[in-house]
Amino acid sequence: MAGEEFGTGNFNPNDTKRKTITCKAAVAYGPGEPFVLERVLVHPPHRMEVRIKILFTSICHTDLSAWQGKNEAQRAYPRIFGHEASGIVESVGEGVRDMKEGDFVVPIFNGECEECKYCKCEKTNKCERFGVDGEKKVMDCDGATRFSTMDGKPIFHFLNTSTFTEYTVINSACVVKIHPNGDRDLKPYIKTLTLLSCGISTGVGAAWNTANVHSGSTVAVFGLGAVGLAVAEGARARGASKIIGVDINSDKFIKGRGMGITDFVNPRDDERAVYERIREMTGGGVDYSFECAGNLNVLRDAFLSAHEGWGLTVLLGIHSSPNLLPIHPMELFQGRRMVGSVFGGFKGKTQLPHFAQECMNGVVKLDDFITHELPVEEINEAFDLLVAGKSLRCLLHF
Predict the structure, then answer these.
(1) Which residues form the Alcohol dehydrogenase-like C-terminal domain (predicted)?
(2) What pTM did the predictor assign?
(3) Helix (H) or strand (E) holding 27
(4) In the chain, what are the domain boundaries?
(5) 64-78, 108-122, 147-161, 227-241: range with lowest mean pLDDT
(6) DSSP labels for 85-126?
(7) Among 3.90.180.10, 3.40.190.10, 3.40.50.620, 3.30.559.30, what is the CATH number of 2-197+366-397?
(8) Which tens digit of pLDDT belongs to each residue from 234-266?
(9) Strand, coil or helix: 356
(10) d(C-alpha 19, C-alpha 138), whole Å
(11) What is the rounded average pLDDT for all residues in the chain?
């Protein structure tokens, strides 16, 4: 495997630096259309860009909703989707100083340039230039793409990353170098560290950074996909005394037990409102609730499940609907609060390497989140698994 070259600075024996690479990629030609695996051209990185050989990439609901075309602003085709991956630096453009050829890295959709007023502010993990932007489809420095078809037509980028391809080009602000854990070899961790690009960091970070879940606290997680279960795992690691999982798919309850969930609520099992049941279970409501479903009705239940006076609701689900919050302004005077969380509040380049060390040390358990592994040729089958609710994370390899 290419990972044999970690950290050597001599990853590419054929010296493809500054040359255009021909490789495999899963290309989308329209919303909801099957992915087409074909040869594409990947051009060299420009200033402050990095070209990466992807080792593993996985699929999350953000890829799914974007591919389905739920947000018209994101409809730019042909396009290479994907934003959760791990890989090795093949070459770097002018000006890149914090990584070199052969380094093991993970891409991040929410970048950190380390220079703008947002990056210098401790109160946010937003970046002025490289924050989350589903509409961005070209590279920042010149407004062009680094992908093209074999006959030279441009293929658009996605979410600062584009990882459904054997090679990709990403701005260095959206690439995080992961260091070996002391004398420990990185190779055994490359699969699981793939998940730090999005889902696990988003969920665990929401519990740690956004909510700051404390030992003995009570938590309710609405939506037990990968992000919701990552919230539960983060709350477990912080010592929460009760973690209530809420989902209409009871099959997820079995999986959830291994990730810290202590109690389960299926909204279809009882005519009472979910928030009423949770208040009864917890003596008035939970300290922290997390909405991970992207559903406004669920969001209201999550908000009203939080305890009066101090309860905090963290919004994680992606809401593509134009409808507004289902909260009456006067309800905020009851002391409940609500806040959104992007990428779990992590500043990618400065904080994610330490989080990776904690994962390798076993503070957060990652292995159970990987439910399937397939070759990239079976990407359409992998999407079917996600749509059917049969997978948490399906890893694709080239």
Answers:
(1) 226-345
(2) 0.93
(3) strand 21-27
(4) 2-197+366-397, 203-341
(5) 64-78
(6) EEEEEEEE-TT--S--TT-EEEE-SS---SSSTTTT-TT---
(7) 3.90.180.10
(8) 999 999 999 999 999 988 898 899 899 999 999
(9) helix
(10) 20
(11) 93
